[in-house]
Amino acid sequence: MTLLPFTKHYETPERAAGAVRHYRWIKEHAKPLRQPALHEIGPASLAFERVEGRSVHPEDLPRMAKLLGHAHGAAWHSDLQSASLGTPHQFNDGTPFDDYLGTREIALWRRHEQGYLPNKAALYAMLRLLEETAQGPLAFYKDSNPRNFIITAAGDIVTVDTDDLSIAPMGYDLAKLIATLHLTYGPLTDQAVNAALCAYNTAAGCYGSRLDATNRGRLDDFLALHAVLTAPYVGRNGYRWPLRSHLRGTP
Question: d(Cα 219, Cα 158) in Å, to the nearest integer?
Answer without folding.
Answer: 25
